[in-house]
Design brief:
By secondary structure, the protein is of the alpha+beta class. The protein contains 11 helices and 9 strands. The strands form 3 sheets. Strands 8-7-6-5-9 form a 5-stranded antiparallel β-sheet, with no helix packed on it. Strands 1-2 form a two-stranded antiparallel ribbon. A hairpin with a 2-residue loop joins strand 3 (501-503) and strand 4 (506-508). Helix 2 runs parallel beside helix 4 (164-255) and helix 8 (372-409) packs antiparallel against helix 9. The two termini are 112 Å apart.
Length: 605
């Protein structure tokens, strides 16, 4: 159906209709633009939400559980969904918004051209009608004048009083007017015929062509709008499979949550490795073998301490006679200068100390302050990190070696000697890392029971000698001994090796004590008579090395040597067997001191 034939007389309405179509396209363009902005804003807010709920660095350990991993997986899928919304906005902008803008521009230009052409056709018809009207008026005028001239001639011809000449004159005028009237009549007829032809062409050919162009433009607009809506749906449909995959990923993240695995992980993370304490035995105070007594009385019927101080070991213990401690921490075999002046630290050691944040006494280097299972986990984590650092440094060394070879073959590329210092530093770093790895592997082997106590002490000696950032710690409880009517109090300092002993004879300084003490090697000989106190085994212990000794739970023991921060205490059984046991496996009581629990903070025997 054509607008030109059906709407031949609705030129103005057709113009208004096409204008409304263009305005609707502009409206749709604004709709797409706002929708793209909403999609982008929604995607940005989703991504911000995911970012805000990402685990912090201090929470990384908690995100090892399956429920936390499931939540993180769900957030990752949500982040991908946000990315799909961004894709929707980008595709709508490029495939719909811009194309719709181009369509509007083309329609405006085409409508303007059609209207201008229609306006020219309308003007031409109007001029033709004006010419016809003018020709008609001229014909009417000459017709009236011809009629009047004919009437005048008839009256003159009938008037007998007029001369023949006057009658002929009126007749000539009448004939002239008649000729003019006939001419104008012919002009009017010709003009009318031309006007009818132009009018017929106007309404049957020219204007219908203009209307047809406007109709085609409007139909093209409708088809393009249909394509835009279909393209929008296609864009939406294109991301649905990916969004569906993301939703399936969320479901998989939920299905990955394992209650039993999380419970097992809690056990693995917080399990101490200690056995459940047995029933507390009844201590009969009336029994002569009771473990609860006054002062320095012992449940093992050991002789009371006489109260005479002959000498004092570097750890603050008192023996019946002078006992020589050899090679403690492996630091006294060096000169006094090495004791008082710590060696310079390497670059790697400084970085390691800064990373450890200034390790205190509460956090020991071998993590022996932790429960056995937790100690093994921390040591394994440290070993893994050291292996990673070694691999990194090794790769860096290989890269510098290859670069040095290239420089040697082609000096124009660079100076090979410029890499020597870096390679030297890299070699030192690798040596330090390997030493560190061996040390922590020995820590782990000791924690797993694969090292003997003496090996552990040698390891502790190497560790304390290397780590000169922290001052040497020799801690002991305050010791109070009754000597006649006088008291001798000699607390050991906690952060250095200076030892001061106050006795009735006076004060002896650390320097004189160091001059008198001699230290030979790590494997020391213990004095059989040097019993420092008593102990009771909290847990059974099976000896795994020749230097250790097997004990049963609640077995009574003598203490012959303290724990020197290596996790082992030397004890003697009632049958005379002597060896090391883990310090955390015993309640210890030292003569002349308050009750000290070498392991947990529980009441001593």
């Amino acid at each position: 159906m054509s607008w030109g034939t059906e709407l031949w007389d609705q030129y103005d309405l057709i113009g208004n209709h096409t204008q409304k179509g263009i305005e609707f396209c502009e409206k749709y363009t604004h709709f797409v633009k706002e929708r793209c902005a909403i999609e982008l804003d929604y995607a940005a807010k989703l991504k911000k939400l995911v970012k805000n709920y990402q685990p912090k660095k201090k929470e990384e350990e908690d995100y090892q559980f399956t429920w936390a991993k499931g939540f993180r997986g769900m957030m990752n899928e949500l982040h991908d969904i946000a990315g799909q919304h961004e894709i929707i906005a980008e595709n709508l902008t490029s495939a719909v918004f811009k194309e719709c803008q181009n369509l509007i521009l083309e329609m405006k230009q085409e409508k303007k051209r059609c209207l201008q052409e229609g306006f020219k056709i309308q003007q031409h018809l109007s001029k033709t009608l004006d010419t016809l009207e003018k020709s008609k008026r001229q014909y009417e005028k000459t017709f009236r004048e011809s009629e009047r001239a004919s009437e005048t001639h008839k009256r003159a011809d009938a008037d007998i009083n007029l001369s023949r000449a006057e009658v002929e004159k009126t007749k000539a005028v009448a004939q002239l007017r008649t000729q003019e009237c006939d001419k104008n009549k012919n002009d009017y007829a010709a003009t009318l015929q031309e006007t009818n032809r132009a009018q017929n062409e106007h309404y049957t050919s020219l204007m219908p062509a203009v209307f047809q162009q406007l109709q085609e433009m409007d139909e093209r607009r409708i088809l393009q709008l249909q394509n835009f809506i279909r393209e929008s749906a296609k864009i939406e449909n294109g991301v649905i499979p990916i969004i569906k995959t993301c939703i399936e990923g969320m479901e998989n993240a939920a299905n990955s949550i394992n209650v039993s695995e999380d419970s097992k992980m809690v056990v693995d993370r917080y399990k101490s490795g200690f056995e459940i304490p047995q029933d507390i035995p009844f201590d009969d105070l009336s029994s002569p073998n009771s473990s609860v007594g006054s002062g320095s009385d012992s449940s093992l019927n050991t002789p009371k301490y006489s109260g005479t101080v002959n000498s004092r070991t570097s750890s603050g213990t008192i023996t019946g006679r002078s006992k020589k401690r050899t090679g403690l921490f492996g630091i006294f075999s060096a000169s006094k200068k090495m004791i008082m002046m710590p060696r310079m630290l390497t670059k790697h050691q400084i970085i390691r100390v800064l990373q450890q944040g200034g390790k205190t006494e509460d956090t020991k280097e071998d993590y022996s302050n932790l429960a056995p299972n937790q100690q093994k986990k921390q040591l394994q984590k440290k070993i893994t990190k050291l292996k990673h650092d070694i691999a990194k440094e090794t790769a860096e060394r290989d890269g510098m070696s290859k670069m040095r070879d290239v420089y040697l073959k082609n000096p124009a590329l660079g100076d090979a000697s410029s890499l020597d210092k870096k390679m030297e530093e890299n070699g030192q770093t690798l040596d330090e890392l390997n030493q560190e790895l061996q040390k922590y592997e020995s820590f782990l082997a000791n924690a797993e029971g694969r090292l003997t106590p003496n090996m552990a002490r040698k390891r502790s000696s190497m560790s304390h000698e290397e780590n000169s950032v922290n001052s040497m710690t020799m801690s002991a409880s305050d010791l109070t001994v009754t000597d006649g009517n006088r008291m001798s109090s000699s607390p050991l300092p906690a952060n250095n090796v200076h030892i001061s002993v106050t006795s009735p004879e006076g004060t002896r300084s650390n320097s004189s004590y160091q001059e008198q003490a001699s230290f030979d090697d790590v494997d020391e000989e213990y004095d059989d008579s040097g019993i420092l106190g008593t102990a009771r085994a909290k847990f059974p212990f099976e000896a795994t090395a020749s230097e250790s000794v097997t004990v049963e739970q609640d077995e009574e023991l003598y203490i012959v040597d303290r724990d020197h921060d290596d996790g082992w205490t030397r004890v003697r059984k009632l049958n005379g067997d002597e060896g090391f046991i883990p310090t955390t496996y015993a309640h210890c009581h030292f003569y002349g001191e308050h009750c000290v629990d070498c392991g947990e903070n529980v009441p001593a025997m």
